[in-house]
Specification:
With 102 residues, the chain is α+β, with helices and mostly antiparallel strands. The chain has 3 helices and 5 strands, in the order αββαββαβ. The chain is 29% helix and 25% strand. It has a 5-stranded mixed sheet with strand order 3-4-2-1-5, with helices on one face. It starts with 16 loop residues before the first helix and ends with a strand. The structure holds zinc ion (ZN). Belongs to the SUI1 family.
Length: 102
C-alpha cells in the first residue's frame, strides 16, 4: 500500500509538506542569564522530528568549544555564541531568513 500524506493527500514521494515545514520553521537564537550571572545561548524552534537535536548539539558544542545540553526540544549552550550558532546552522542548510537572533 502506498503511503499517503495526511496533510495534502498526495503520495509521500510527491508530498513536499516536510520541505515546506523545514522552510517555514522559525529558529530563534537568544541568550539568557542564569544564576551567578552565567550566560546561556538558547536555540529553539528546530523541528526535532526532522533534525537529530542531540547530534546538532554535539556539533555546536565542538564548534563553539563550550558545554551544552538538549532540553525540552531546545539546545542550551554555555556562554554567548549567538552569531557563531547562526553561522553553523546556515552552513548546515537552514535558511538564513528563518533564523532569528535576538
Ligand atoms: Zn503532504
Amino acid at each position: 500500500m502506498k503511503k499517503i500524506c495526511e496533510k495534502c493527500g498526495l503520495p509521500k514521494e510527491l508530498c513536499v509538506c516536510e520541505e515546506i515545514a523545514r522552510e517555514t520553521q522559525r529558529i530563534k537564537i537568544y541568550t539568557v542569564k542564569r544564576r551567578f550571572g552565567k550566560i546561556m545561548t538558547i536555540v529553539e524552534g528546530i523541528d526535532s522530528q526532522e533534525i537529530d537535536l542531540k547530534k546538532l548539539t554535539k556539533d555546536l558544542k565542538s564548534k563553539c568549544a563550550c558545554g551544552g545540553t538538549t532540553k525540552d526540544g531546545r539546545i542550551e549552550l554555555q556562554g554567548d555564541h549567538k552569531e557563531k550558532v547562526k553561522k553553523v546552522l546556515i552552513k548546515k542548510g537552514f535558511p538564513e531568513d528563518a533564523i532569528e537572533v535576538r
